[in-house]
Each structure stands twice: as structure tokens, then as C-alpha cells.
Inverse folding.
């Protein structure tokens, strides 16, 4: 039988007769389905009793999810902690956090009897019981601090109504039932207290490298600030390294979150400032304040980044991120995104990031390289698109020139788009054949940009191609979205972390402007309307005046997948490697990677909801 | 336990100890997996002991497949008869009959021991055991005439290596092992005697309408001809109705196949000749003979069509196909396709079709309507395409004008393309929303064109749209394939059988030629090459001179899904309904039909091959 102990176990004084009741019911059921269950539950208790990953689901911290991933079983073990159980709750997953077409585990009670079941919601948000129960209840435990529910879910069930748990972002949803309900169907999903939380469920199984004995730590944290009572705040705080701080290697870092603020601190980043300025002003305030000195915009080199649900970040044992020493700025900028939807007032916070570093330099400096699209308006997305694709290339010609013969190793990646981004993937191609996914997020959200360790380190050699594809949704927009720096313009970027560091900082592309010009001419000639796409008008203006019928949309797609590109194969954002980089041919792909079809695992056990003895639930 | 009796059971004198041995082994295994099997085998014996559908697999008739479909179980029951078992056989399914990436049931023997297992072949044709055994062996029986293997396969297993059994054509493959093999992996799939057979596995469950007492029959059969000793022959034979034969209704027909020729008679059709000619010459010979009178080309109105594996065809009880009477030709043409790959000589044949007809006319005359694309070169497929899509429309405007207020009922359909056709589907759309698939074949083959009864009768009302989509493969072609009558030109047609008959014979479309002209201009201007697409050149010539880069391919696709269409809403092939039919807008679809995701059923039972006691197998 799986363990019913929770992790981080607070001293437990459970009313033992209830636990016994629950356990006995569970035993009775198991007796019935014993033969079948035995087959499936073999080794189904989580290895170790703990759930290493934890995230608050709601901003008040009433619901907390801990989990563990078993790759051999292709399953996730969940422990859901409910501080104050009313008449049940919903927990589940959906494509982008919506409550329609969602896959839900539901605990509901009519006040006397409680049930746990696997359900799905249709396009109207109506709940239905799944014909197969794939959220497999393993235990329930009442403790003084609240209720613990332990359940298991395989990544891929055989139920077409179920969510497929994949790498990358997973949109978790929750809802709290505040009134008794007599059946699952009676739950009105639009009338309940509910919300969403994004996490990377399938954390990679990383072996933690040995840490040196001379390791030191440094905390870059907010100086006991008051979190503004508004939904969204980006807080900026400037810190600095000691004078004459010599070169060190950052070898790991971890979040420092002020107790009680776990649900408010959404993500944090530490940036190093540009070395060309001798000093930077001290600043401690919102990043969008009029008082913020402009020079802070020159603090953009990422040293560390953390987002909710992430754990400590470890550099591979061969490499560290250089900081300190000559040619490196002493100034650091801490940026914290506070997400405070309930507009709490007067909350103090001293969160930040703890850097672990060593003076015993590792063999290699780690570097960061930017892949994807150049920030230029020639790459645009028509309005009203559901899933428009733009692709940025790092060509064989550039890697041939810029990478060492022994290649580089990519070990982490941070995907980046603006608000229309929905998916990002980078694929490594060699000799025209796609070889390996570098990083992929099919449920990417611009609101959840973590640096993610890769499951597998990716070796890139001279002559390899790195192809980054972003999918955008512009359904709610009425004019074209062009590439650029603005929040309503778009980007398609993958910041890859690798070693050994090279001079190549940027390997990105954009369509050749001459071919785009032919496109605007074609739009003029083919369509009956008269469109002003005269060359003296800016590219965004030309895009804004295109009549977006299906033909003009399709031909733009065709243009992007046919026209030659302008390559940015750069040492820094302004300095290109020597060579001809205009009108370069698009990489040709003769063999695509096969989408791995995950083999589904039907969950054994009852196909009906499980009754739970939680006692009488009270109405306030 | 499922019955081990075969259908049409010939007297059985099985060596009973062997049967007992097999049964005992089977029982031992069942004992082990009893609990699981009990769950799954409930009601798994075919209802009735018979297998109503039957087809020879190989041209010598050594292998014969009978089967039955259980829609409640979503499973097919197969009975494979092997006349002369050597050292095993392969039977399976694949996308288009290839032996690579195929899903196979394999019976193999090392001379002493025999095994039955579910396997798959990779892209190189190498066999591997499936991790789950989804061809579920139900029984094996030695009889004097040969071996019967009985097994079951659900439509959709949970194994991604398995073939999904769908409506429409299924490409069955078989192979005969003539030497002992020591393991599955040792089978060299390219070195064995093998072949393919196309069938519609999922026959619809039609209720047979009551037949009238005055029903008469008429056989239209070949007059004891000698089948030519060549692989492919289309034989033409002219028959005629009696003088002054009054109007009758054909209410069913069935094949008459000369015993022994079951594997050679591939398909047969009876056509009625055009009424405008008073007489037609008698003819009995190959259809492509120089001696065949030209006038036979005017015998194209289908009265009956049968293909291998098909059974009797029944008209719905409200309708019959009119023949005889004034305004109807007395002349009929029988066409038989003989497929004789082993080049047998001197085989006599009197196969044909038996028509069942009645003078008591049913309420409605049945009619045939042609949906899809007009036969014109403006609809073209670039060379080297894997899956190029062309779509033909029957618009709301045409159905509004031509259909009765009470609508029509489509009950059968015959899909038609030339050699590049790979898929055909017709969808019914109402108010811009796709409502129902009329007929779909995702594994369509131009070599297997049956009239198929629909699973569900489709009601079409004035204002509805019928959209027919064909997918073509031109990988092996070096120049564009244009629409037309030639065998290397293409068609996209669905002949739908419906009642009550209307004047609408043809509801088809093609792209507006003016827009195609703009396309050729655009190709000239956008691309750097100089292309001769001057208007004095014919459309096929213009297509043949397009340089087929990805841009020109994509833009042609965009054109076809954007440009207005020319509608043929015709009473007969030359007479249009009154109205404006040029430059019509493409139907807009606001809601697509969801592809039904069939729920997979994991097959219970052992995940390893099953040993079979077939005794020692002999080498010749």
C-alpha cells in the first residue's frame, strides 16, 4: 500500500479512527479489484516519501500542490493540501488554464457523503464523469492543519477526454466548492471560486553535481519592501558586488522567498549591468516608475532567473557562470514580479535569489546565446490568427564559423515571446535532418518564463542548424502584429545556456526585406482593393494596410517558408562575424523528427467515483 | 469460451488429440489470466457462428479470409483459412498495402514448435514483437482441407504501432513462410511469397428490406469466355433487355462468380447505354481492343457495381433503380476487371451480376448525382506532392434551386479518382457548419472503387452544401497533373445514390479561370525565372511550365482555397439550371467536424506470443 505520510511532515496528530475508517474503506475496495490492482500498483508508492516540488495554487495559500515524477512509471504523484475543506474542490489541467475542455479530479460532498472522481468539462463548462478513472486516489488524510489528498496520474491515459502531461508548461486549474452538491453534474463551474497556476510538472531528473568546499553564498534580496497593493508589480532593486571582487563562477542559485509571500512572488531575475558604464544609480522601486533612472535599462545580462514552482538551479559540473573580475560590471539589478490579485495591503517582502559561487574556477565559463528571430517588423503576424507560425534560423554557415570544433553543450534554455506567444520549440538539425529537440513548450505562456534545465544536454557542432519556431495567437487583435521590442509587438527567442562560452552571442534571422517588398506588390496586384504599400511607407504601415483575406494570409506564410533570410550571426548585438549574411538560403529539412506518440496506460481500478469518509462537512 | 467451429462448416475429422492439446494449453493460459480475460471476453464469441464476409487473399486461393464485425465491441472477428500450411504465415494491415510500417499477426514455426504473435514491421521491413498482443488468438483448428485460425482485433488498440481499423478501404497484406524460422526477427519479409488484398472491413450493419413476392431476377454474365493470360483485363460484354421491357425497379443485385475464379474476378459493373441511340453493336471482348465499337463509350450509366469482398447491394425499401420502359435504352454493358497476376491460361469464366427487380414500382425512383470537381485542367496538382488536396463544391445556391423542399436521402456512394487519388471525403455543411460525413475513405485506392452502402442515410435539404475533398500523391511524377478524362489526368468525384430522383445530375465546381490567370502572372513576376505563361498557351501548358518551388506550390494551394469558383449545377452534363454560376464565392465553413478520436481498447491477455501445437510441420 502506498505511504500516506506527507512530505515536510509537520508533527502529525491525526484523529486515528478516521484514518482507520478511510483505510478500511480503501481496503474493502482494493479487495474487490485486488487482482487487477496488484498488476498496476506494483512499485506505485513514490520512491522516498517526499514530494520534492511544491507550489501554492491560489493567492491565499488555501491550496498547495506538492508532487513527484516517476519517469519509469511515466506517472506523476500529487499531494494536494487543502487548508480548510468546505464541500470539495476541483483540481485539474487544461490546454491554457481554461475551465472548458478541462481534465479534472473532483472531490465533492453533499454534506454527508464525499466522493472523489475523474471528470471532464465540455466546451460549455459542464462537468461529466470520465468513463475511466485516471486520477487514481491513493489516500486521504485529515490532519489538524487540513486535508491531504494523495493521487497518481499517468502522463498519457487512454481516455481521449484526458489531458496529456507533456514537458514544458502545464496549466493547473483549481476550484473550491463552498456549498454542498448532490452530484458532479450539479456543479456550476462558472459560479465557483477558481483560478489557475502554471508549473513545469515534468521536472527533469538532474544529478546534482558535487559542490566545492570553498563555496560562498550571496543573497540578492529586496530590502524589506512593501508589496504594492495592485495586481501586478515589477519591482527593481539595484545591488552591487564588493570593490575589486575578482572573477568567480556562479555554480548554483536558489530562491529566497519571504515566508507567507509564497503565493505572491511570481518570478525573480538577477541581471548584471553593462561593463561600459562605471557606475549605476541606486534604485529601489517599481520598474515602471517615472523615477526609475534610464540607465537601469543597461542591466540586461541574466545571471539568474527563477519562477514559481522552480527549484534551485545547478550549473553542470564542468561549467560556471563568470561574474566579477575585470571587464564585468559590479552592478546587479534584481527584478521581482509580484502577482497580487487579491490586492493585499502592507505585505512586507525580502525575497530574492541566493547565489552560490566559488573562486576555484571550473573548467569552462558558461555562456548565453540568443536564438530565434531578429527584432524587426518584417516578421509579422496577421490579425485574427489562431496559431500563426514564425521561424527563426541559426544557420550552418554561422555555426561553422563561430563554434569550436569540439562543439558546445546546451544545458538550459529560457523561451521568450511577448503576449501573443503560445508555443515555442527549438530543434537541432544536422545535414538537413532534424536530430533532437533542444527545448519545446507546447503550452508556453508569456507569463511563465523560466530558465529550464534540459533533460538531456544537447551537443551542437560547427555546421549544425538551430531552428526556433514560435506559434502565436492574435484572435483578439484587429491589426497585424509586427516584430519588435514593444509589448504589443512580438519576439521569438530562445536564450540557450551553454558551455564553453564562445564569441557567438546572437544567431538569429529575419526574412529578406526585398522579398517582403515583392509580397506587398503582389498583394497590390492580386487583390481587387487598392492597398497603399508604397515603399516610402514604413513596414508596419504596409502590414497594417494589407486586407487580411485568406489568400494574403496564406501567401505571407508561403513567403516566410520560401524567401531567403537575412542572418544575424553576431559577436554582440551590433558586431557581426565577417561574411555575407544577406539573402541566405533557408535551411532545407529533408527529414523531420517524428512526434513521439506516448503510449497510453489505462488506469486499473474502478470506473466509478470513490466514496471517501471525510465525516460531516459543515456549512459556515 | 469462444466457439471454434468455422462457418459453412465442412464435415470435420480433426485429429482429436491435437485439438485437445491445443485446448488444454489454451486453458492453462486462460487460467493464469482468468480474472482479466473474464472482464474482456464477456460476449466475445461472435454472435452467430458465421463469418458473413469472405475474400480470397492470394490469387491462387491458398489463403481465404472470412470476417464479422461487432460494432458493440468495436472489434473484428477474423477467420483465416490456410489451405496448405508450410512454416507459417503473416497477415496484417498497413496504410496502403506496404510491408514496411505494417501491423501483422504472425504464425511461425521452427518445424517443431509453432507460435502466434502480434508484430509490427519498421520502416526497413524488419519485424518486431508488439509489446502488447492485440491480435487475440481465439482458436486454431486443423481440418482435412487446411488450417483455420480464429482471432479477434479491436478497431483501435492502445499500441501506437498498431493499425487503426477505420471505415473505407483497408489494405490487407499476407505472406507465406516456406522455410522454418527460429524467431520472429529471423523472418526476411522481402524474401517471402507475399501480396495484398483491398477490402472494406467495416461493412455497415444494414437491415435488409423486405423483398416483394413478384421479384424476378436477370443475370448479366459473361458468356463462358476465356480469361486472357495477362495480369489485367477489362472485359466488355453487351447484353440487352427484352423488347418492350416495361419500367421496373431494381431493388437489389449480387455477384455471380464462377467457382474457382474467386481470386481472379476483381470487380464488375453493369452500365446502361444512352437512350438517344436506337441500337448498340453486340460485343464480347477486351474493353481496350481495337475491335471494340466506339459506340460502347455511350454506355456509362451505372446500374450495378460490385468489387471483391462486397456482398449483395440492397436499395432502401422506399426506392428502386428504374430500368426498362420508354426513354431508357435496352442495351447494357457488362464490364469485368480480371486480375490475373499469376497469368493462368485457359480459365473459363461466366461471372457477372444478378439483378433482382420488380414491376411493382416502389414509391421513389433512385437517382445518381455527381459531386466533386468538374473535369477541367484548371484544377491541377503540382508534381512531387505527397498529399495535395483539391476540393469540389456543391453550393447552397445549387441545392436551393434543384432539391425538393423535403430534401433527398443519400444511401450509397461510389468514390472516384484516377491513379493519383489517395483519400476522398464528402462532408455535408449547413449554415456554414459541417454536420455530417457523407462518405470518407482515408485509405482510398483507385484500384478498389465499390458502391458502398452508407452506415447512415444522409438527408440533404435545399441550401445545404456538399463538399468533396480529394487527396493526391504525385511523388513519382515530374510534371503537373491537370484535371481531365485521361488516365494520367485526375478526377475528384463522388457518385452519390439517393432518392427521390431529381433533375440535378451534376453539382460540381472548378476554380474561376480568371483567378488562375492571375496566379500565372504572379508566378511570372514573383519568381526570378522567366516563365512562359502567356494566355495564348493552353492551361496544361502553363501548368507544365511553372517552376515548382515551395512558394509556387503554396500559392496554388492558397489560390484554390480563396478564389471564387465556377459552378456546374446541371440537369445533365451539358444543361445548367438557370442562374449565374460564374465567379461564385467559396462556401465558408465556420465550424469543422471534429475528427472522432476512437477510444482505444487495450487487449487483455499475455503480452508474449502464444505457443500453438500444430504438430511437426514438413518441408517438401
Amino acid at each position: 500500500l502506498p505511504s500516506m505520510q506527507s512530505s515536510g511532515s509537520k508533527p502529525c496528530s491525526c484523529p486515528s479512527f478516521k484514518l482507520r475508517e478511510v483505510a478500511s474503506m480503501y481496503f474493502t475496495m482494493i479487495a474487490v479489484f485486488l487482482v487487477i490492482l496488484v498488476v498496476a500498483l506494483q512499485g506505485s508508492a513514490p520512491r522516498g516519501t517526499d514530494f520534492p516540488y511544491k507550489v501554492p495554487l491560489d493567492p491565499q495559500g488555501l491550496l498547495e500542490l506538492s508532487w513527484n515524477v516517476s519517469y519509469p512509471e511515466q506517472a506523476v504523484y500529487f499531494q494536494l493540501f487543502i487548508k480548510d475543506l468546505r464541500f470539495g474542490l476541483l483540481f485539474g489541467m487544461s490546454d491554457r488554464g481554461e475551465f472548458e475542455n478541462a481534465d479534472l479530479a473532483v472531490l465533492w460532498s453533499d454534506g454527508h457523503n464525499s466522493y472523489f472522481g475523474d471528470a471532464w468539462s465540455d466546451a460549455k463548462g459542464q462537468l461529466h464523469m470520465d468513463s475511466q478513472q485516471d486520477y487514481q486516489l491513493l489516500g486521504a488524510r485529515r490532519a489538524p492543519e487540513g486535508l491531504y489528498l494523495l493521487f497518481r496520474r499517468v502522463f498519457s491515459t487512454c481516455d481521449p477526454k484526458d489531458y496529456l502531461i507533456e514537458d514544458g508548461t502545464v496549466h493547473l486549474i483549481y476550484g473550491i466548492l463552498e456549498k454542498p452538491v448532490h452530484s458532479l453534474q450539479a456543479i456550476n463551474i462558472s459560479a465557483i471560486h477558481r483560478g489557475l497556476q502554471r508549473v513545469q510538472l515534468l521536472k527533469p531528473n538532474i544529478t546534482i553535481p558535487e559542490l566545492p568546499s570553498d563555496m560562498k553564498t550571496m543573497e540578492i534580496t529586496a530590502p524589506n519592501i512593501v508589496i504594492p497593493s495592485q495586481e501586478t508589480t515589477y519591482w527593481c532593486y539595484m545591488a552591487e558586488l564588493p570593490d575589486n571582487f575578482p572573477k568567480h563562477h556562479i555554480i548554483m542559485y536558489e530562491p529566497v522567498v519571504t515566508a507567507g509571500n509564497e503565493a505572491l512572488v511570481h518570478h525573480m531575475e538577477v541581471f548584471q549591468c553593462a561593463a561600459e558604464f562605471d557606475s549605476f544609480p541606486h534604485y529601489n522601486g517599481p520598474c515602471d516608475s517615472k523615477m526609475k533612472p534610464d540607465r537601469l535599462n543597461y542591466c540586461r545580462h541574466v545571471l539568474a532567473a527563477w519562477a514559481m514552482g522552480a527549484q534551485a538551479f545547478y550549473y553542470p559540473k564542468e561549467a560556471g557562470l563568470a561574474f566579477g573580475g575585470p571587464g564585468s560590471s559590479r552592478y546587479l539589478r534584481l527584478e521581482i514580479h509580484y502577482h497580487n490579485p487579491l490586492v493585499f495591503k502592507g505585505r512586507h517582502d525580502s525575497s530574492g535569489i541566493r547565489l552560490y559561487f566559488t573562486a576555484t574556477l571550473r573548467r569552462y565559463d558558461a555562456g548565453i546565446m540568443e536564438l530565434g528571430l531578429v527584432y524587426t517588423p518584417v516578421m509579422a503576424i496577421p490579425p485574427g490568427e489562431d496559431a500563426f507560425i514564425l521561424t527563426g534560423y541559426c544557420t550552418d554557415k554561422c555555426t561553422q564559423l563561430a563554434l569550436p570544433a569540439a562543439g558546445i553543450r546546451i544545458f538550459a534554455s529560457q523561451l521568450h515571446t511577448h503576449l501573443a506567444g503560445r508555443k515555442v520549440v527549438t530543434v537541432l538539425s544536422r545535414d538537413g535532418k532534424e536530430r533532437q529537440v533542444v527545448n519545446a513548450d507546447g503550452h508556453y505562456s508569456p507569463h511563465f518564463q523560466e530558465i529550464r534545465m534540459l533533460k538531456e544536454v544537447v551537443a551542437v557542432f560547427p555546421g549544425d542548424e538551430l531552428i526556433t519556431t514560435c506559434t502565436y495567437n492574435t484572435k483578439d487583435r484587429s491589426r497585424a502584429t509586427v516584430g519588435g521590442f514593444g509589448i504589443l509587438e512580438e519576439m521569438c527567442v530562445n536564450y540557450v545556456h551553454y558551455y564553453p562560452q564562445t564569441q557567438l552571442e546572437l544567431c538569429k534571422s529575419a526574412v529578406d526585406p526585398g522579398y517582403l517588398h515583392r509580397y506587398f506588390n503582389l498583394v497590390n496586384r492580386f487583390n481587387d482593393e487598392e492597398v497603399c504599400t508604397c515603399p516610402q511607407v514604413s513596414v508596419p504601415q504596409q502590414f497594417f494596410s494589407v486586407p487580411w483575406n485568406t489568400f494574403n494570409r496564406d501567401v505571407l506564410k508561403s513567403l516566410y517558408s520560401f524567401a531567403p533570410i537575412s542572418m544575424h550571426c553576431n559577436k554582440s548585438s551590433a558586431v557581426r562575424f565577417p561574411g555575407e549574411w544577406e539573402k541566405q538560403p533557408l535551411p532545407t529539412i529533408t527529414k523531420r523528427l517524428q512526434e513521439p506518440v506516448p503510449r497510453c496506460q489505462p488506469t486499473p481500478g474502478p470506473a466509478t467515483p470513490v466514496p471517501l469518509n471525510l465525516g460531516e462537512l459543515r456549512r459556515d
In short: The interface with chain B takes residues 35-36, 39, 131, 158-160, 518, 521-522, 525-526, 549-551, 554-555, 557-559, 561-563, 597, 599-600, 602 of chain A (CB under 8 Å). The longest helix of chain A spans residues 16-32.
